[in-house]
Amino acid sequence: MYNLLIADNDEFEAKGMKWLIESSISNVHVKLAHNLIDTVMVLENEQPHIFIYETNIGMGEELLKAIKINQPNIIYITMEATFEAAKKAIDISTKFLLIKPFSPQELLNNINLIIREHERQTKDKLERTFNTDKQNVVYEHLFLAESSFIEPYVFVAFQPEKVSILPKLNQFLKEYLFPITPMIFPLSDMTICLFNSQAELDWNYLCKRFMYDWDQFESESIVIIINLEENPYLSLHEKYLHTKKMTEVTFFVGYRQVLEFTSELQWKFIDPFLTPSEQKQWISYLNEGNKEEISSFLSREFLQFTNPFPDPSLLRIRLTSILAQIRRHMKSTNLDHKLYEEEYLTIFDTILYETIIFRIIQKLIIFTSKIIDAAADISQNSYTDIIEKCLKYMELNYWKKDFALSDLSTFVGRNSTYLSHLFVEKTKKTFRECLTDIRIKEAKKLLIETDMVVKEIASLTGFQNQYYFSRVFKNSVGMPPKQFRTKESLEHFSRS
């Protein structure tokens, strides 16, 4: 942190300069003085690195003495564009002379130049103190298990969100003025820098300063991971693996951050598959078009993690399990044509490769909402034939236990008696027989594709109870539900 003193008897002007500097430069602390006595006191007590001296404050022996003893970097501000004013500035070893009016950027540039010069001097001093042979560590040490112990290096990983900007990031790292020169190792998805840990630096501040400077240079986001593990028995290879693993936290917290770790990152185990109860929930949500519950489930299950985080790969598997439920709903509502197929595949790729969990959930919610709306549109508009409309409506509502012919009558705007006659004429079956066929068809899918118990499947497919469902299923299929599931499992096993 650089201390900076502004000496100006115009209080409003001084506060304006303070705001400009502190809002534009991250590592400065600004003090104000509005008279000669306060100026001398701050110079003696605070010993600021940079002294912005406005000539309206005056000059005296005490101030000259304080300047001579403390030797701050002086930015001299005056309204007089004369040789005499320039000579006065030179006499007190001024770094920069600013003639009013000057632009705010001129002042900021001068301050940044002073800071850069100070950092360069500090770096040279540290380099002389910690003269590290850059050939001590080579790529093989990072990748081979038999590499030497880690001391005395601090690992810092710089990972861009977009791999395409790695060359630009590598060049920026090579040219960046660190207090001590790191060993730089460009990799396929990040760059690892090794710093001499004997240099007692504020690593967090150092990396935040780098992040600030990078943001001024480039709009693409990066994350910086500082590995401060102190285990002296770690090899370079082990610490590299730990550092690489730490970068995966971005899946939960995003980029444009500096993250510190003092121990190896440990994942929390989760079951990557939906439980039978959760499968039942999703079937219900999709059938009912319950967007609010879907959004709530996804937010609760995927956006509220804290350390220790679950393994991102397990979360991706869990999301594909949910996508399988959505896929099943798409097929049951005839939404498996090209437009929705392409969107489905895009979401599948997003789940596998998107770098941040929040974006995956956001896109999944939008996609699911679109599927629900499309299914509703189909049920209302896609089928002009009355019986076809009825059958599609039944496929969307078969799960309702109290679903009756009167519901269809209301939906299509036809008399129940007429509709009953039309069913027999068109399908050769009664309304109740058609509804039972649909329910049995869906029950078969659930028996084959899920691990849900028979009682849950009976409830999801609209039957009043398990026993009635089992009786109807046996009459229709020729065997009880459990026997059907066993038979299908054995046939699937023999085929595979």
What is this entry, summarized?
It contains 22 helices and ten strands. It is of the alpha/beta class and 496 residues long. The mean pLDDT is 88.
What keyword list fits this structure?
22 helices; 10 strands; five-stranded parallel beta sheet; alpha/beta; Rossmann fold; 4 domains; Alpha-Beta Plaits
Structure characterization notes:
Residues 3-115 form the Response regulatory domain. Residues 388-487 form the HTH araC/xylS-type domain. InterPro entries: CheY-like_superfamily, Homeodomain-like_sf, HTH_AraC, HTH_AraC-typ_CS, Sig_transdc_resp-reg_receiver, Tscrpt_reg_AraC-type_HTH. GO terms for molecular function: DNA-binding transcription factor activity; sequence-specific DNA binding. There is one protein chain. The chain has 496 residues and is an alpha/beta fold. It has helices at residues 11-24, 36-46, 61-70, 83-91, 104-129, 139-143, 166-175, 203-217, 236-246, 250-253, 276-288, 291-302, 312-332, 338-353, 357-382, 386-397, 405-412, 416-427, 431-449, 454-460, 466-477, 481-495, and strands at residues 2-7, 28-33, 50-54, 73-78, 94-99, 153-160, 183-186, 191-196, 222-227, 257-261. The chain has four domains: 2-124, Response regulator (Rossmann fold, 3-Layer(aba) Sandwich), CATH 3.40.50; 139-261, Reverse transcriptase/Diguanylate cyclase domain (Alpha-Beta Plaits), CATH 3.30.70.270; 277-381; 384-495, Homeodomain-like (Arc Repressor Mutant, subunit A). The chain is built from 22 helices and ten strands. The strands form two sheets. It has a five-stranded parallel β-sheet with strand order 2-1-3-4-5, sandwiched between helices. A five-stranded mixed β-sheet has the order 7-8-6-9-10, sandwiched between helices. The two termini are 67 Å apart. The model has no long low-confidence stretch (mean pLDDT 88).
